[in-house]
Amino acid sequence: MEFNVKVWRQKNAKTKGHFETYHIAGIEEDASFLEMLDILNEQLIREGKDPISFDHDCREGICGACSLYIDGRAHGPDDHVTTCQLFMRHFKDGATITVEPWRSAAFPVIKDLVVERRAFDKILQAGGFISVRTGSAQDANNILISHDKAEESMDAAACVGCGACVATCKNGSAMLFVAARVSSLALLPQGRPEAARRAKAMVAKMDELGFGNCTNTRACELECPKGITVAHIARLNREFLKAKFSD
Amino acid sequence: MAEKLNSKIPEGPLSEKWTRRKSEIHLVSPNNKRKLDIIVVGTGLGGASAAAALGELGYNVKIFCISDSPRRAHSIAAQGGINAAKNYQNDNDSVYRLFYDTIKGGDYRSREANVYRLAEVSAAIIDQCVAQGIPFAREYGGYLANRSFGGVQVSRTFYARGQTGQQLLLGAYASLNKEIAAGTVKSYPRHEMLDLVLVNGQAKGIITRNLVTGEIERFGAHAVIIATGGYGNTYFLSTNAMNSNGSAALQCYKKGAFFANPCFAQIHPTCIPVHGDQQCKLTLMSESLRNDGRIWVPKKKEDVEKLRRHEIKPSQIPEEDRDYYLERRYPAFGNLVPRDVASRAAKERCDAGFGVNETGKAVFLDFADAIKRLGKQRVAERYGNLFEMYEKITASSPWEEPMMIYPAIHYTMGGIWVDYDLQTTVPGLFAIGEANFSDHGGNRLGASALMQGLADGYFIVPVTIGDYLSKKFAEPKTDTDSPEFIEAERAVQARIDRLFSIGGTETVDSIHKQLGHIMWEYVGMARNEEGLKKAIQEIRELKEKFYTSVKVPGSQYEFNQELEKALRLEDFFEIGELMARDALNREESCGGHFRVESQTEEGEAKRDDANFMYVAAWEYKGEGKEPELHKEPLKYEFIEVKTRNYKE
């Protein structure tokens, strides 16, 4: 297969970026999108050009590092996958493919397609944990959790922290990300003692870091590679309101 | 010589050793802990849990990772589960059995005392993880669910769908975040350790490169913990993440930490086969699939031919024409034999011409029976996400046709040599998780890597490091302007300058790929004397070629992934050579290390306990010089050493 790849190039956070288009041929249809970029980079280096920087690591769809906006969609045209699990068989031979970084005020570009997502770490540091000291836990089976509750909590805990929800949202809101963590812990008895504090602190931190407001467009759930639904946003809102009323 | 390798195993009965050691360890009072700085390198299960636990104790911790966030560490990708001797299933499990299975699974090449301690603390890990809010799978009554893994006959594996590593890492990362918020831990993402700094022979800090700005930075501490995982990416193609590397471990080796059993690399039997030469990463299919999946190849060569020409589908081959070779060869364990055994058996069938895809390097993993027995829904609950992932990658549905799988490099049991306290041969330098060598011998059992990472990080190193630090609290903060730090920084800078000065035409990846071919060919699933000698020779030649023909584009002072890869590849050359050298020295087959010269008539691995029941610890002797081998004899006082038998 062959493609024209139109890529966002930006030297660093301080300079302005622009698109450049490269032609690439000889791609197997079983190749992944990132393998295609690897091959393109080999080609660029041999031509004496600067290769394209992009974040990636596990290439199994679980680390959440890859973060490409492809043909107008976070993680590209396939549903519920990360970019690394996107395969070239989803593209038409000869197509022009546009590749951009996540666009969000809270995720500044470091270089080319690489963005800074430290804001997510900061939101979690604000309260995305249970305050348990190592070694002080009771026997695991003393806490009973119904099968369905555990599964529902796991649905939310599957978040990989990639930022597709933010990149997709027209307001640049991180609500789905925050909701996934708040909801996952709020569903479990271990998470209840700090539930109110957690919801308030994480929402406050999200606002402080420049993420936008949620206006319930549900675009985020369509692009979430792990299929996390806005039902968790509803739970976050309930937790947040409960916390506010108990103030 | 002898005192160089003092494993410091406590006296007394096996079950009392850890208690005894803990009672001997000197304590550091809370007000003195505040004066002590600890550097942790790596944020996987080991690093994140250690940093969190040390922060809780009141030490000043600095934690470094190469990713944009600690949560990206490759522990995140572990799928199947974590072992613990809880005996929740009433299937007669115990600390002793977990210990015994691990020693036996490791083919009697790990330390009794370390492995027993691992089994001993395993139960507390599950308690800790549940308290952190990790949504492990539950039975309908609300109790924790378990499944089985290779090499054992009980169900002791706890799991969260096929994403157990992710959930455990997010738990450790959450605890780390708690400590970062509390101010006890400071996090340095996108920083890569490029050297270890010794002052008066003691580990006192590290040199890093800021991966965003490119600046070289110095960090000092009273002790350094290495938790940077394994070196499986020496092979280029592996199940490791793209950025996983052995560089931090190699820097420690070059500064005097012995490197133990480097040749012990695990080849995982169930990975998605290589599809062409454009690939850079292999994907694992969890071992948990072997609970219900059956592995087979056709009995008849004509069926193999038809499969390769796509004239028939695997489901069309009748039952009597299928060779369920693991069930045939190992009736007692069947499809759940340990990984090394399963991998070699797959290779044996493929080498005999029964590989089921075009490349001849694939076998089937079939769920048809499980779907019939359990129904689609229960199979989906257990493996749904794995089936989906397989289908995304291969465009073939495991619900319709069996998966195709083949062995691939997955984990390295070898690593930095540590004593019972997890301290290396360099005072003040500790190594935990996959980065050390201590618990898995020649082969690691499934669901034990997560157990070891968290055991080391939550429960062992936070205790043992206290003994070292109890003598250090009176020492002032480490001065990073000392000659030792300046010299280390200068050496790192020289390394980087050299790489940019080469100005060749070859890409880093293309040379790494060649290294991978050498490693897989000669230091892979079957090794022999001639091949290993050839490997050492070819790696040296390739390294020379690297220094004359590689092209590192861009500059130092920017985000530069090619420079990162080039620095890591320099280290992979040395690790690769050390692996081949160790494999050459170990003239026996054990665990994942299979020397063709040492096998039984049935083709099983043949150990040589009389001559090789030792840990091979290699000491660096300088650039271009041969490393020196030190032997730590392995003594089995509490169990009888036997030939591994998974047949009956």
Task: Please characterize this protein's 3D structure.
- The complex is a heterodimer of chains A (247) and B (648).
- Chain A contains eight helices and seven strands; from the N terminus they run ββαβββββααααααα.
- In chain A, a hairpin with a 2-residue loop joins β6 (109-111) and β7 (114-115).
- Chain A has a five-stranded mixed beta sheet. A two-stranded antiparallel ribbon of chain A has the order 6-7.
- Chain A has helices at residues 33-46, 118-125, 147-157, 164-168, 175-186, 195-208, 219-223, 231-245, and strands at residues 3-9, 18-24, 68-70, 73-74, 96-101, 109-111, 114-115.
- Chain A has 247 residues and is α+β, with helices and mostly antiparallel strands.
- The radius of gyration of chain A is 20 Å and the shape is elongated.
- The mean pLDDT of chain A is 96.
- The termini of chain A are far apart.
- The longest helix of chain A has 15 residues, at 231-245.
- Chain A has two domains: 3-111, Beta-grasp domain (Ubiquitin-like (UB roll)), CATH 3.10.20; 118-245, Orthogonal Bundle (Fumarate Reductase Iron-sulfur Protein, Chain B, domain 2).
- By secondary structure, chain B is an alpha+beta fold.
- Chain B folds into three domains: 2-264 and 413-469, FAD/NAD(P)-binding domain, CATH 3.50.50.60; 271-407, Flavocytochrome C3, Chain A, domain 1, CATH 3.90.700.10; 483-614, Methane Monooxygenase Hydroxylase, Chain G, domain 1 (Up-down Bundle).
- In chain B, 38% of the residues lie in helices and 14% in strands.
- Chain B has helices at residues 17-24, 30-33, 45-57, 95-105, 112-131, 164-182, 247-254, 301-308, 325-329, 339-354, 368-374, 376-394, 449-469, 483-502, 508-522, 529-549, 561-585, 609-612, and strands at 37-41, 60-64, 82-83, 157-158, 185-188, 191-199, 202-210, 216-220, 223-226, 259-260, 265-271, 294-298, 322-323, 363-366, 403-412, 415-416, 429-431, 614-619, 628-633.
- A five-stranded parallel beta sheet of chain B has the order 5-2-1-9-17, with helices on both faces. Chain B has a five-stranded antiparallel beta sheet with strand order 11-15-14-12-13. In chain B, strands 16-10-18-19 form a four-stranded antiparallel beta sheet.
- In chain B, β7 and β8 (216-220) form a beta hairpin.
- In chain B, α11 packs antiparallel against α12 (376-394).
- The longest helix of chain B is centred in the C-terminal third of the chain and has 25 residues, at 561-585.
- The radius of gyration of chain B is 24 Å and the shape is globular.
- Chain B starts with 16 loop residues before the first helix and ends in a 15-residue tail after the last strand.
